[in-house]
Specification:
By secondary structure, the chain is of the alpha/beta class. 31% of the residues lie in helices and 24% in strands. Helix 2 packs across helix 3, helix 4 packs across helix 5 and helix 7 crosses helix 8. The structure holds methylmalonyl-coenzyme A and adenosine monophosphate. The site of methylmalonyl-coenzyme A has 22 residues, from helix 8 and strand 13.
Length: 503
C-alpha cells in the first residue's frame, strides 16, 4: 500500500546491497538490511497494539537501531517523538503526557527510572540499547518477520518535535509526511547529493538537522552515511578522508578549525560542508576558507518549518547570510506588529509559507492560530532583511531564545525554576557569547532581602528538572533587574554587562 514518505525513501531499498550506514567499527549496514529491519520493528510496534496515528516517544542514544525504530514508525504510520537524551525524567514526563504517547522507548540504563517517574495507566515502557538488546528486542523476536507497510498520505502526521516556547511550556510541532519529504527532495536537488555521496554524520538524530535534513536527504538519493554516535574530534578527523560531505552546527566548525590536523590536504577531496541551526560567524566562514579552501554553505531552518533558505551551491556562498528562499518556499519580511511588508532592505520578522511548514502545535489551536497569518504564512520569530543582492540575513530574534551549540534554550523555562528557589526574588536568564557553544547561559538573580541565594544549592535543586545543557553556566546577583518604563526587563543591558563571562 502507498506510504508517501516511506515509499520514496526506502521502498526501493528491499534487497539492495548498496551501503547505507558505515559504523565506526567497520560494520556496513546495507539498504536492504535496513529496509528489512524496519519491517521487523514495524511488526513489533503493531504487536504492541500501536495503530496509525498513535504516538510513540523515544529517548535513545544514537545507533542504527534507534534509526530503524524511527523508520519503522513511519512505515507503521505511528507518530514518533524523538527526545533529546539529555532531558531529565521530569522533562520526558511532560512530553509523554502532553502527546498522549502510549509507548516509551528508552535506553536500558534509564527506562526503569522513566517508568517510575512517569507511570501512567496503560503506558508501555520498553528498552532498546545501542547494541540492539533490550525488552523491545524481545518484542521484535516474538513478532512476525514480515510487515505490510501501512498506507499513509502526504498530509498524515509523521512526527511531533517538541520545541520550547517563550511561555516556558513546550509545544509539539506536528510534522506531516510531506513536510519532511518535500524538504528532503528540495535540498538533495539543491545541494547536488547523489548515491555516490558519503555524509559524515555526527549530529544527534532527535532534531531536524541530524534526522530530517541529513538522514532524509541521504535516503532520498540512495547515498550513505558514516554514522558516528556523537561529535568526537578525533573520530571526525579519522573519518573525514572517507566522506564526501558533512553537515554540522557552527560548534562543529569552530572545533575542527581549532585542530591542527584539520588541513587543506585532509579536506581536499570533500564536496560540501553545510552549516545551520545557529548563526555561523562570518569570521568562522572566512577562517574555514583560509584553512581548507572550501566555502561553508549556510542554510536556515526551524523545527516547525524544516529548511527555509540556503546559500547557493554554484553561486556565491556569502558569509553572514543564509542565502535565498528554497525554490518551493515563499519568504517575506514584515512588521511584526502589523504584519505589513517592510520596505525593501528593512529589517522585520521573517515569515514563510510552503510545503515544508508544519500543521500546527498539538492540542494548541489558539497558539497555532497566533503563529500563522490569515494568508497561511508562519511567523518565525526571527528578525531578518533581504539585501539588494537578494540574500537573506538573520539579524536577531524577536523571541527570547538562546541557541547554545545548536540546542535551543528558552530563558523562561529556567527563570520559572529559579524564581522558586529560596533566597531568590526574581531572575533573568540571558545568552552571552561563548567561544565553543556560540552562546552560553547566564543567570542573574535578585536576592529576596534575606540571606540571599545559595547558587550551589540552586544548581543542585534544578539539576533534576532541567537538562544539563540548559543549566546556567554562570550565576550573578544584582540588587535589581534593569527595566524599561513599561516594566519589561531589558535583557540587552544584561547581555552587554555580562558579555565577557566566557571570554
Ligand atoms: C553539551 N553541553 C552543552 C551543549 N552540549 N552545553 C551547552 N550547549 C550545548 N549544546 C555540555 C554538557 O552538558 C556537559 O556539561 C559538557 O557540555 C560536555 O558534554 P558533552 O556531551 O561531552 O558535549 P559535546 O559532545 O561536546 O556536545 C557538544 C555538541 C552537541 C557536539 C555541540 O551539543 C551537539 O551535537 N549539538 C548539536 C545540536 C543539534 O543537532 N542541533 C540541531 C537542532 P558538563 O561538563 O558541565 O556536565 S535542529 C535546528 O536547530 C533547526 C531545525 C536547524 O536549523 O537545524
Ligand atoms: P529550532 O527551533 O531548534 O528548530 O531552532 C530554529 C532557530 O534556529 C531559528 O528560528 C533560528 O533562530 C535559528 N537558526 C537556524 N539556522 C540558523 C542560521 N543559519 N543562522 C541563524 N539562526 C539560525
Amino acid at each position: 500500500m502507498a506510504n508517501h514518505l516511506f515509499d520514496k525513501l526506502l521502498s526501493g531499498a528491499a534487497g539492495s546491497a548498496a551501503p547505507f550506514l558505515h559504523l565506526p567499527d567497520g560494520t556496513v549496514i546495507s539498504y536492504g538490511e535496513f529496509h528489512d529491519a524496519t519491517g521487523r520493528f514495524a511488526a513489533a510496534l503493531s504487536s504492541l497494539g500501536l495503530k496509525p496515528g498513535d504516538r510513540l516517544a523515544l529517548q535513545l542514544e544514537k545507533s542504527p537501531h534507534a534509526l530503524t525504530l524511527i523508520f519503522a514508525c513511519i512505515r507503521a504510520g505511528v507518530v514518533f517523538l524523538p527526545l533529546n537524551t539529555a532531558y531529565t525524567a521530569d522533562e520526558v514526563g511532560y512530553f509523554v503526557s502532553d502527546s498522549g504517547a502510549s509507548v516509551v522507548l528508552g535506553d536500558g540504563s534509564k527506562i526503569d527510572a522513566l517508568a517510575e517517574k512517569i507511570g501512567g495507566d496503560g503506558i508501555r515502557f520498553l528498552s532498546l540499547n545501542p547494541d540492539g538488546s533490550g525488552s523491545f528486542a524481545d518484542t521484535v523476536g516474538r513478532a512476525p518477520s514480515e510487515f505490510e507497510t501501512i498506507a499513509r498520505g502526504p498530509d498524515d502526521l509523521a512526527a511531533f518535535l517538541y520545541t520550547s516556547g517563550t511561555t516556558g511550556r513546550s509545544k509539539g510541532a506536528m510534522l506531516t509526511q510531506d513536510n519532511l519529504l518535500s524538504n528532503a527532495l528540495t535540498l538533495a536537488d539543491l545541494w547536488r547529493f547523489t548515491k555516490d555521496d558519503v555524509l559524515l554524520h555526527a549530529l544527534p538524530i532527535f532534531h531536524t538537522h541530524g534526522l530530517f535534513v541529513a538522514t532524509n536527504v541521504m535516503l532520498s538519493v540512495g547515498g550513505s552515511m558514516i554514522f558516528l554516535p556523537k561529535f568526537d574530534l578525533d573520530q571526525m578527523i579519522d573519518m573525514m578522508p572517507k566522506a564526501t560531505s558533512m553537515m554540522g552546527v557552527p560548534t562543529f566548525y569552530t572545533r575542527l578549525l581549532g585542530d591542527p590536523r584539520f588541513t587543506k590536504e585532509l579536506t581536499a577531496h570533500m564536496r560540501l560542508f553545510v552549516s545551520g541551526s545557529a548563526p555561523l560567524l562570518a569570521e568562522v566562514h572566512t577562517q574555514f576558507e583560509a584553512a581548507t579552501g572550501h566555502r561553508i554553505l549556510e542554510r536556515y531552518g526551524m523545527t516547525e518549518t524544516n529548511m527555509n533558505t540556503s546559500n547557493p551551491y554554484d553561486g556565491e556562498r556569502k558569509a553572514g547570510t543564509v542565502g535565498f528562499p528554497l525554490p518551493d518556499v515563499s519568504l517575506r519580511i514584515v512588521n511584526p506588529e502589523t504584519g505589513a511588508a517592510v520596505p525593501d532592505g528593512d529589517v522585520g520578522e521573517i515569515e514563510v509559507k510552503g510545503p515544508n511548514v508544519f500543521k500546527g502545535y498539538w492540542n494548541m489551536p489558539e497558539k497555532t492560530k497566533e503563529e500563522f497569518r490569515p494568508d497561511g504564512y508562519f511567523r518565525t520569530g526571527d528578525l531578518g532583511q533581504i539585501g539588494s543582492d537578494g540574500y537573506v540575513r538573520i539579524v536577531g530574534r524577536s523571541k527570547d531564545l538562546i541557541i547554545s551549540g545548536g540546542y535551543n534554550i528558552y530563558p523562561k523555562e529556567i527563570e520559572l525554576l529559579l524564581d522558586d528557589q529560596p533566597g531568590v526574588k526574581e531572575s533573568a536568564v540571558v545568552g552571552v557569547p561563548h567561544a565553543d557553544f556560540g552562546e552560553g547561559v547566564v543567570a542573574v538573580l535578585v536576592p529576596d532581602g534575606g540571606a540571599g541565594p545559595d547558587t550551589a544549592a540552586i544548581e543542585k535543586s534544578i539539576a533534576g528538572s532541567l537538562a544539563r545543557f540548559k543549566q546556567p553556566k554562570a550565576y550573578f546577583t544584582l540588587d535589581e533587574l534593569p527595566r524599561n518604563t513599561m516594566g519589561k526587563v531589558q535583557k540587552n543591558m544584561l547581555r552587554d554587562r555580562f558579555k565577557d563571562t566566557f571570554a
